[in-house]
Amino acid sequence: MIRVFDVRVVDEDGSQLGVMRTADALRLAQERGLDLVEVAPLASPPVARILDFGQYKYELTKREKEAKRRQRSVTFKEVRLKPKIGIGDFDTKVRRAIEFLEEGDRVKVSVQFRGRELTHPQIGRDLLDKFAEQIKEHGVVERLPLLEGKSMHISVASVHKPKTHEPTPAAIAKGHARTDEDAVPAVDAEATTASVETPDSPAAPGPEPEDGAASTGKVN
Questions:
Q1: How many Cα neighbours within 13 Å face the side chain of 176?
Q2: What is the pTM (predicted TM-score) of this model?
Q3: Which of 41, 43, 66, 94 has a Cα-to-Cα distance from 157 of 20 to 30 A?
Q4: In a domain, 164, yes or no
Q5: At residue 1, does pLDDT exceed 90?
Q6: Sheet holding 35-40, edge to edge
């Protein structure tokens, strides 16, 4: 509910209609078969926009889903080596680490020691240095090799951006994802939404509407 007496109004085409009484702005919106939505409650005076509230909520939800679909958290992957690892296995581990880094993930490369192998930590350090050299075009070593317990490891940060996963044609066909052709005209997705109740006289100051909250009001 908009509790202020005056608002700065923007119409459905984005044109500025100036400052007017909230009651008049609501009446204008209703004459056009639309809603009055407060999009900038902290402005002076607050900014309200004339638009289709149902369409606005749909577009807001669509943008949130799109952001979540494109968002990809960076995960921490681990590659384990042995002090006596063969050349073929070593190269395989290097390729696997590069795949992780190309996906934008961070990689922990560790050498596991057993028994008397702990008396030769330099072997593990040399392995990790060699490994870091092989993947230097895809990642940056964040810490030097350090023996901790029975293992020694390095952490590598990717120099690639995390990859996003686009929906497959099959998912689109099943309705699991919308295409750009289904999109409706965009509105300010970061706005705070609220409907308006017409005041007969200047309303007493009240609490500002919370972000994301929306309530509907009708003219009596």
A1: 9
A2: 0.44
A3: 66
A4: no
A5: no
A6: 16-21, 6-10, 47-51, 35-40
